[in-house]
Structure formats: structure tokens, C-alpha cells
Amino acid sequence: MKVFVVHAHPEPRSLSAALKSVALEELLHQGHEVQVSDLYAMKFNPVASAEDFGVRANPDYCAYALEQRQGMQTGTIAADIQAELEKLLWCDLLILNFPVFWFSTPAILKGWIDRVLVSGTVYGGKRFYDRGGLRGKRALVSLTLGGQEHMFGESGIHGPLKDMLRHLLQGTLAYTGMSVLEPVVGWHIPYVSDDQRRHVLEAWRTRLQSLSCEEALLRFPSLSEYDERLYPRRSQELLSGT
Fold it and tell me: What digits encode the pLDDT tens for the residues 56-75?
């Protein structure tokens, strides 16, 4: 496989950083090709702005998605965006590795998503979900958080973790066409023992050993289930009596 790991944790000695290192080591050991973007180490710019474009479609008003298309067509999109996009288009498997901040990704990773998932190439028009620009690729989220596992069940105080991550699992990864694998979670990480941290790392290594043949179990919408106006086909059939 060609694997692209995007790592977003500010502390190089964190368990999250260790997860990134184990992934690199294990995947290379298996013979896969791996590229890593360590966003904090790179000092990646997370701010989407008009400065991302050398030649503007509209110099007077920045519609960011439209300017992304123009930047790609003219070859004048920012160099750091182009470099990350090339890694994304190259890979078979994307791994996003990060700690949960406020029910979400760190800002630097959200900025990477905003800037690198460019309109016209990754998505656009009706090119989303199973028709997205990244269809055929797989995605895996590996994350750490401070909460305990029981806090994220159906009756847990925070609700299911997958609901918390819907903006990422569905609204970003599945939306752009990728098949989304079950997330890997390190629970309660700032408060557990070193032995428990080692267990998390070993479980991650074991998961990595089967990734090449792992199938996506998470299910998301398919455009075949909707008509040209994106109304559910089943609803239309019921209304028409067919």
C-alpha cells in the first residue's frame, strides 16, 4: 500500500506521537510505502485565505472553493497546498492521527482539511460520497482523548464517539469518497499508567498488521439511493405508489 499519515499533536513525546512512530515503523516493516506530514513540526499554515492563490478568478471577492479550482487550473495554488494534495492523491490509505480537542480535531488539522481538500479535485457538484474525488481510497482515524470509554457509549454522558466524530468520518472522509475504517481510540490517555499506554501501542501495532485486507464497516450515503434532485428514491416511490 501507499500510506499517508497526517499527524497533528503539539508534543513530540506524546502517546499520539508514539502512535505515529509505530505506524511508520510497522508499515515500512511490512513493505508498504509511507509518507508522513507532522503538521506541528512543519509549522503548517492552517489559515485558509486569499493568499493561497496566485492568480484569482475574482480579485474583488474571495469565494474560497472557486478560487481553489482556479488555482489548480492555473497551477498557482499555494505550494504547501499543492505538496500536501500530491501526497493525498498518491496514497491508497490516509491515516489521520490526532488528540481530540473540544469534541473535534486540533485547529491545525482542521486547517489542513480546509486548505488541502480542494474543490474540483477532491469534491464538487455531485462528486461526493461514493462519487467523490477520493473514491477508491481508504481512511483511518487514530486518536487519543482524556475521557474514559464508558463516557462515550449510547447512554454515556457525551454520547457515542462516532456521533462526535460525524463531521470528520462522514462530513469529510466519506463525503470525499473514501471508505472509512473503524477508528482507533486511546482512552483516558493523560491519566493511565505506562503499562496501559504500552498496551495501546501494541494493540495499534496489531491493527496495523491487518490493515492491507481490512474492509470498511462504517456505512454512509450512496448517491444511487437518491434522485437527481437528491431526494431519497424510496420516498419518491412511496409517493408515486410504485
Answer: 999 999 999 999 999 999 99
Q: What is the pLDDT of residue 242?
A: 54
- Cα torsion 144, 148, 151, 154 to 10°: value is 70
Cα-Cα-Cα-Cα dihedral sign, residues 82, 87, 92, 95: negative
Q: Per-residue DSSP letters for 47-111?
A: ---GGGBSS-S-TT---HHHHHHHHHHHT-B-HHHHHHHHHHHH-SEEEEEEE-BTTB--HHHHH
Q: Residue range 167-174: average pLDDT?
A: 97
State the pTM of this model. Answer: 0.93
Residue in 140, 147, 138 with CA at minimum distance from that of residue 186: 147
pLDDT at 159: 93
Residue 173's contacts (CB-CB under 8 Å, 6 or more residues apart) are 94, 139, 141, 180
CB-CB contact of 98 with 145 (8 Å): no
Pull the grid cell for residue 133.
Answer: 474525488
| Cell triple for 11 | 508534543
Q: 481490512: which residue's cell? A: 214
- Euclidean distance between CA atoms 101 and 118, whole angstroms: 24
pLDDT in tens, 79-89: 999 999 999 99
- 193 exposure class (CB count in 10 Å sphere: 0-12, 13-18, 19+): exposed
